[in-house]
Amino acid sequence: MLVSLFRLLSFLPLPVLHAMGVIVGWLVFLLSPSYRRRLRDNITLAGHRASLFKAVGEAGKGMFELPFIWCAHPDRVLRTARIVNWELVQQALDAHKGIVFLTPHLGCFEISAQSVAHHASLSVLYRPPRKAALKPLIEGARARANLHLAPANLAGVRILLKALKNGQAIGLLPDQVPQNGEGVWAEFFGKPAYTMTLPAKLQQMSGAPILLAYAERLSWGRGFAVRFVPFEGELDGSPEQQARAINAAMEQLIAHCPAQYIWSYNRYKTPPGVTRPGEARA
């Protein structure tokens, strides 16, 4: 039933879906105290409180554009994407050293992967949804031509490393909270957040360059600007320093369109079995 609903919605024009999303985004914000509190607290902590009201509507747009991104014909989806700075990607591809794409939960990150996979093979780290009913929908939508899914486990890490050594590209969401033993505590907008160490490890093991990518949602349903940005941080030092460098790069990307970050995501949660900084000393 859910798959049928998504396929039905995918026939609607993107401006209509975004308009519906704004309405639902505000309904959820007004009716859910926990959602409202987390979104408000996170965006305030990051210093982007001025974008709060716009972020409410953007969150709804992000939800309602998924049927279009996942279920519409790929050609129709890609026509909505305008690529910016593709020459950075092409230069890295021509070097045949692989690419580590880092994309935060900013804008329409789903179309970022599809845009890259339209030109080159891309393997992305994937964590199955908690609800089993969503699994066939999400996996079927994401596993398109040239876009390969790597499970978030040791086997998936091997897939990513093999792709890099073959000169191919991989994609990671570095602001996704990892499981116990897969991350370190590093500041994200001034507050400790459990942050994955995998991006730095894969880069150092393969020698592949890191590129940042995000898809800014354009107003009035006009599509998306898929932007590629060089990573200018240093991955020397301890895992904590490496994680902080990546978090700092994500903060800089988010500052370009702060209303489009998923502030309701529980970025500061403590995974099971992980001790927060200060608790161990106590």
Q: Report helical residue fraction.
A: 40-55%
Strand portion, in percent? 15-25%
- N-to-C series of helices and strands: HHHHHHEHEHEHEHEEEHEEH
Structural class: alpha/beta
How are strands sequenced across the largest beta sheet? 1-9-8-2-5-3-4
CA-to-CA gap between the ends?
50 Å
The residue ranges in which pLDDT falls below 50 over 5 or more consecutive positions are none
Major sheet summary line = 7 strands, mixed
Number of helices: 12
Q: What's the overall geometry?
A: globular
Rg estimate, integer Å: 18 Å
What's the count of strands? 9
Q: What value does the average pLDDT take?
A: 93
Give structural notes.
This protein has 12 helices and 9 strands. It has helices at 2-9, 14-31, 33-45, 52-64, 66-71, 74-78, 86-95, 109-117, 135-142, 154-165, 198-206, 239-254, and strands spanning 81-84, 99-102, 122-126, 147-151, 169-172, 183-188, 191-196, 210-217, 224-230. The protein has a 7-stranded mixed sheet with strand order 1-9-8-2-5-3-4, sandwiched between helices. Strands 6-7 form a two-stranded antiparallel ribbon. The longest helix has 18 residues, at 14-31. The chain is globular and about 45 Å long. The model has no long low-confidence stretch (mean pLDDT 93).
Q: What is this entry, summarized?
A:
By secondary structure, the protein is of the alpha/beta class. The protein has helices at residues 2-9, 14-31, 33-45, 52-64, 66-71, 74-78, 86-95, 109-117, 135-142, 154-165, 198-206, 239-254, and strands at residues 81-84, 99-102, 122-126, 147-151, 169-172, 183-188, 191-196, 210-217, 224-230.
